[in-house]
Each structure stands twice: as structure tokens, then as C-alpha cells.
Amino acid sequence: MASKVLDKHHREIVFSVPDIKCGGCINRIEKRIGALDNVTKVRVNLTSKQVTVKWNSQQDPPAVSHCLRSLGYISQISVDPLDTDRDQVIPYLIRALAVAAFASGNIMLLSVSVWSGAEQQTKHLFHVLSALIALPAVAYSGQVFFHSAWRSLRHRSTNMDVPISIGILLTLGLSCYDTFVRQSTDAVYFEAPVMLVFFLLIGRTLDHLMRKKASTAVSGLAKLQPSGAWISRVGNGVEYRTLSEIVPGDKLKIAAGEYVAVDCLVDSGSSDVDCSLVTGESVPRNVHVGDKLLAGSRNLTAGLYAIATADVKDSYLSQMMSIIQNIENTRSKGRRLADKVSVWYAPVVHLAAVLSFIAWYYLTDDLHHSVTIAIAVLIITCPCALGLAVPMVQVVIARRLFEAGILVKDGAALERLVQIDTVVFDKTGTLTTGKPQLVNAEAIEPVAFEMAVAMARVSQHPYSQAILTAFQDRAGTVFPEEPETAIELAGYGLQLMVAGCRYRLGRPVWAVEPFSESLQQNESSNHANISSTVEAQTALSESVLTCNGEVIAEFLFEDSLRDEAVSTINSLRAQGLHIHCLSGDSASAVKSCATELAIDQFNAELLPDEKVAYVDTLARSGHKTMMIGDGLNDAPALAAAHVSMAPGSASEVGRNSADLVFTRNNLQAVLQAITLAHIANRSIKQNLCIALAYNALALPLAIGGWVTPLVAALAMSASSIVVMANALRLNAWGCLTSHSKLSGLNNSVVTPKVGQYA
User: For residues 439 and 554, is the Cβ–Cβ distance under 8 A?
Assistant: First the structure.
């Protein structure tokens, strides 16, 4: 069995179950599988349509596949969690929608001719033509409802597709009976089932499209890994091996600029390593022989040789995949509002149709008329409007957010966004720019600045790039020529010899070393032994330019706050939201940032699982948390939060883990998203009220016999159109501003930029 060992007592296996549709499926599967012997834990992931089962490995494996089959779900073992085969449902839904639209239009044209007073033979011919159009159209386009209803009935349960399917089939059956058996020229109702299928497919397609965008973050992790690595062989040769071929003990050759493929220990060399995606550290870390490198880190300044300590399955990125997938399988977002309504909707409709049939047959002894009324009840109460209430609003709001530079990957995230009471920010790259900036450029002497710029041109180190950027910002500046003799000493800085003068730009403890002509030739071999004592921890990082050991310029760097960070935090706090800051960066840097933003709750030097634990602690204390982060180290916390958001500049894994992504790299997007989520929530409630009020009014009319199936279909269509119109009303900017006032949010949250696009 393709299961995974969790510990010496437990194993885990993942099943792919493509027919999982809603919250009812989740409850049914978890309840039945959880009751199996030896099952210790079961979780259903609606987004990935996977069932994860954990059991005691000391006993026989549970019969999960058989249990799923008994529930009517086809399943297969999911061997590869990164398997992202193309979704085949959306193309079918679009084709089915097109077929239903074509059939509806043509049958309605024929119906107009029938109702306009055509002769009896012409009426019968048009009825036959309508049947020939409706039968194949419903057979093809209605499969998604029929399959779901049959699976539910076969296993003695019900869902919203059951009354839909019964109404469609009864209407078709009665119309075919009247057309081909009775050969009646009275009213038949072929347009009703086709219109039902058409409007239901609109909601089903929109809902599936929104759910599809909620893709798992695990696939993004695979893209972060290189496809392989260069392995050093005996005799100084190298060969390229794929990730799966790398085993512990292999000697990796990691060139400057490359990502680390698997966890390893530095065997020779010294370099600066960018760990920002992995740990959240804003400052590159210098590594020497014996230091550990995590998969996903990026080597910056010099080549390294390292000994692999783990294969790809046990490396840091794979552990991250496991953490994220477990979180996605275990986190509970709560059932969507429409799912809550649907729990009691289907039984009420069934009962109403059955009682109507029994009562009318008892009163009139007319089977045909009684069936017609029961059909009218099923059609007029068909949940088309209910099915459109949520996805239509979410699609419209998602478009508004997209035009404001915010991508919504999961429509349900809008429902969760209105529930939050706590916002947790990552620091590096989220509250700050994620790029060090030179903060004392004006205080540096021009001659010294030009020398530093000339040396910095040979380096890709973030501090070198910050010096170049600051110099370029000066009006009328021209870059000095790049010196050919400048060298970069990994972990220490840059060195340049000019006319017997040694210039150094880098770490203070290294740059101020005494200079002696007799030691000049040995410096390149001795620099690796220089103490790498870290300067006193402050909010600013320092480099110095020296000439023969004497400091001639000091360069101070800071990962500066985003321009809009202060106003965003203040606005969120004004809405009564609690603000927290979590970071893997140093305590001094995090404290400085939190102090400037007046954030009282902050934690530094956190690992990814510690961030998840922090978010879980908030959840257990009753808080609904919104997590905002950008790095690989934030991905598990983004997945664990009640709702999450990431900037477009985030790592691919961070973007995939988040429910929303803002592409304009401006934190004001957080306020815009919250505002529009409140607007969407209000509109969804309005649509649900419209749909339920319509049913409450229409149901007595249908039971009373005042509504034919055709009128029922028209009324059902009208209610669907009203719901869609109410959703499309959100396209109006005036509507959005009025909604924001009603929601009780600060009007400043809806910025002019949102207005421009709304």
C-alpha cells in the first residue's frame, strides 16, 4: 500500500476522490471512515478533493477504499501529492452550459409559435421537435446533477441535486407521454427542464471556477527546487544528477547564484547565503565549513562544496510540503453559507412535492393533474436562485478586486474575511520592502562614495546593490568605471588594491585589520580564518570603507518600512482589529519595526512551525486570524490561518498558500479586500433572502394548483435573473460606496484607486 510512515505506531494514506462536491460530502465521508476499526484520524480536503486517513500501523489497514465505494465515491490512491493533472470538469461544464443555452433558446422559439395560436398539427410537430431537442440536451447537460442525485439515493441519502433531477425527469417524462402517447396538443413543458439545467449550470460553473482557483501550495514548492545538482566525483570530475538520484553523502558543487537542492553541510568554501525565502532573515547569512544549508536557500557570492545530509524526500522543502498539506487537510474553515441553507432545503422540497401529489390525487382522483402539480412544485422551488446567490456575487466582487490589483483564489475566502478579528503580519517583505536601503547616503563624502560604488559594481550582494541604488538616485551622477582588480571575499566584503593602498568595503571587524605589505600576498589564504564576530545587534546594519585599515566612510543599511505600512496598520486598528507581527528575522530588527508601527504583539526568530503554532494558539483562544506574509517560511502559517493574503512579490509557494494575492505591491490592498468582502457578504445575504422569499411565496401558489410547470419555469427563471441582477448591481461604484457606509467600515478604507476600478 502506498502509505507514508508517520512514526513507529502510525501510517497515513491519501485517496483522491474527485466526486467530493460540498460540505455534505465531507461530513458523510468523515463520519463513515472515522467509524472504521483502527482509523485514528480522517480529514477531507474539498479543494484538492483528497481524503487523508491515519491509522495504527500495528494492526491491519482499514478498508477505506471499500467504504468510499459503499458511499458511492470512486477513489484511487494519491501516490504523488504534486500531481496536478488538468481539470476536466470545467471544460465539460462550459460545453454543457452552451448546449443547454442553445436548446433553451430554440425550444422557447417553438413554444412561442405554439402559444401564438398555431394549428393542431403544427403544435404537435413543434412538440415533437421540442422533444428531439430537449432529450439529448438534458441527457448531456444534466449529467452532473443526475450522477450526483443517483449516487446519493443509491446510498440512502439526499442532496440538493435529488429534487432537481426528479423535477427534470418527471417534467420530461410527462411531456414525452403527452406528446408521443396521448399525442395531445395541449401544453407540454419541454422548455422547463432545459431552462432549469441552463440556470443551474451557470451557478455550478461559476462555483467550480472559484473553487478551482483555491489551488494547493504544495505544487509551488516543487518549482522552487532545482531539477538537480552537480555532484563532485573522485578525481575532480562532476556529473549532473536529478533530485531523486541525490543521496546522503554526495558532494554537491553549488555555484554562486544557485539554489541549494537538498539539505547539506558546507564541506569547503565560504559564501553569503540568502535564506529569506526559507527562514525570513532579511540579511544574507555567511556560511563556513561545517555550517548547515537548507534546501531552498540561495548561494550568493562564492562557490561552495557541501555534503548532502538528506535526500529530496527528507529535505527542508519536503518537510514544508508535508506541513502545508497536513494543514490544508486539517484546517476547518466552516461550512459556506449556501451549504448551511441546503441542509434542510432538499427535504422540505421533497416533502412539499409528495404531499401536493397525495392531496390533489385524493381530492380529484386525476393522476395526470396531480403529477403536473407535483412537477410544478419541484420546478418552482428549484434552487437555481439559491445556487446563483453566492457564486454570482463572488465572481463580481472577484472581478472588482482583480481590477484593484487583488486576486481572489477562493470565493469562500470572502465569506471568511468578514469574520476576522486579528491580523498577523510577517515583517520582511510584507511590512518592509524586503530590500536593504542605504540610509545615510547624504552624510558620505563624495570621493569615498565613488570609491565604494566602483567596488560595489563587481558584487551582487544586497548591500552592494543598495549602495549602487543610492548613488544612482543622486541627480546627475555617473557611475565610475568598474575596477578590474577588485575581488569579493565571501562573507566579508570587497577588496581593491590601488597604488599600494588596500581598500576594503564590508564587515567592520574585517575591513579595519592592520595592513602590511608583507602580509598582502597571504591575505587571500588567511581571510577564511578571520573572526566573523557579529557586530552589536541594532536596527541598522553597518559596512565600512577603509584604506589600509583606517575607516574613511561608514554605510548604514535598513530594511525600510513600506510607505503605506503606517497608514494601513492605523486603519486596521481603527476597525477594532488586533495587530500582531511574526518574523524569522532578528529580535532587534523586529522590535524596531514593531515599535515604529506601534505593534505591541510581536515575536522574532520564529521557524515556520512556530508561526503555525502561534496562529493555532490564536485560533484556540477564539480568534479568527488573517495572516499576511510573503516567504516560503510563511506558507504553512498562511495555510493555517482562517484567511490569508500575500503580496505579488511573494515566493510562489507563499502566493499559492494564500487565499488572496495583491499584485500592486501596496498594503492598502488589505483594507480594500476587507471592505469588498463586507460588501460581498451583505449582497450574498440579500440574494439568499430573495431566493428564500421567492420560494416562500411561490410554493403555496404551486401547491394550490395556480401554477403550471411552464409558469413555474418562467418564475424560477425570473428569480434567477433577479439574483443575478442584484449581484451585477455591485458593478456600480455608487452601490459600493453606499454598501461600505452600511457595513460600518471606515470610509477611508475604500480608496480612490478602488473607486477608479469599481
Answer: no
